[in-house]
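Researcher: Here's my situation. A collaborator sent me these components and asked whether they could plausibly form a single complex. I don't have experimental data yet, so a predicted model of the whole assembly would be a useful starting point for our discussion.
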Amino acid sequence: MSGKEVVIDVQNLTKRYGEVAAVDDVNFQVKPGEIVGFVGLNGAGKSTTINLLLGFINANSGKVKLFDEVVAPANAADSHQDIGFATGDMALFDKMTGRQYHDFIAKSFRRPIDKTVYDSLCDRFQPELTKPIRQLSRGNRQKVALIAAFMTDPKLVILDEPSSGLDPVMQQAFRDLLREHQNLGTTVFMSSHYLSEVREVCSRILVIRDGKIIKDIEADELASTGGKLIRLVTESQCSLPEGSKLVQAEQLDKGFVTEFVTSLNMAELQKWLGSIAGLRDISIADSTIETAFHDLYNAPGVDDVSNF
Amino acid sequence: MFQIFKKTLRDKRVFIYGWSLGLIVMAVFMVILFPSFSGGEVDQLVETLPAFFDGFMGNLQDWRQLPGYIGSQLYDIRLPMLLSVLAIMLPLSISVAEEEKGQLRTLLSLPYYRRTVFWGKWLAIISISLIAALSTLIGVWIGVMLIDESLASDVYARFGLYSWLVTMTMASVTFAVGMATGSRSAALGVGIIATVGSFLLTTFAQAVDWLEPYTWLSILHYFPAADVAKGVMNWSDIVVLAAVTILPIVIASFIFGRRDISAA
């Protein structure tokens, strides 16, 4: 893939803190117009990767290219002309009001800000713009930060847990905004703890664990990889069908509850259920992305894209 | 750079108003005491004090003329103490505190080069130091008017220039360490050595013989306020203060452009 077809190009990126590799030989590319979810547990290396993308910190080895230009702390501002950035707990300039903060953002960019874009963002999120930011609730500060990230009409938006302070209505408004930007061809790279949000808006998911990318997959594919989520209540403990992944097993007053994910087809599942004695209750659902993520994260052998 | 400069001044406006007012009031207060201090009764009292106290009280002969009194009592003793505090608080809040809060990352996520951020902030430090020096001069001017005295304009100019340079130098050293390391303890430690250390060294060296050879290490050594009041203008002092300001700033600018920025 040539540089012009790639917005983010991460090559053999490693960042160490002492003996610990926070990011360990990471490689990935993001094409124009993709909305990529970046998921992993706390401490997996998500924020460190984002810090490297934005040139806040130096890599020990490897490189980051944004818009075909190598990013380093001293020259990161070159690419930042085309980037919007927000985090869930962004440290805004709290002595300013929201309006003054946005004015400052607007003056920081070489190109003029389209006022209609700004007004539509304000209509969408309804932020409090007249009070000093330090007096705002977390949700309102988050709205101010999100508007700042999108108001410059950036080619690339990098988001770190972007919707964590928003109420459900605003979370939905944010997802709608991402979908609209996808149609406009904006590239989005976002880390999130909300896997349902990632599945809903992202076209692709990168899973990071212990500083390594362990999965690079289409969002729909990740959820469907999980198969069916079965929940059984039985009189006595039962063994699982071959290849199934146990999610939960516990003894309650009403019997043994066993929850597992299986890739058996319906005919195989019917046959297996027929062999269980003392079946009291059963529920079957599509495995959620959360379950698939849980399984992936706990799979001991998963350490690269091909193993999942 | 102008955006960063404006933003920093805006962020520090309460600090600027407070310090300006405080310095004006202190300068007025010190100057209006001149008629009392220039009388013979205080002479007798001070003459009974051991020489050790010269560092804290100034030379008695300087008290008899207004320029000498202002140089000795305001610019040689009280102002350096106050400006030491300013020269630590201001650069710490502009450098390390913003990084600790995560606001430096927010700023650097915008299309500002690190050098732009660095020099914009330093320009604000230079300006606030100038405002502090001018505020003191305004206080002196008001005080002189209140006691129906006069002071030559070149005396104002010399005091203003020196006090600006000294404040800028002390603040720049703290700022340079803060921006180069991102460490509050390093910036605070070096800042205290550069400011309070200078004050103590200069003050005690007048009474402690073995400290005398080391006075060149004090930033305040290059602001001999009592001599400045008498019209002495030693350009080598100016050069040293400028060098002590610029050298750490240039080194820090280089390091800040390349180092990791810590997360909040």
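Model: Some features of this prediction you could bring to your collaborator: The first strand of chain A starts at residue 8 and ends at 17. Chain A has ten helices and 14 strands.
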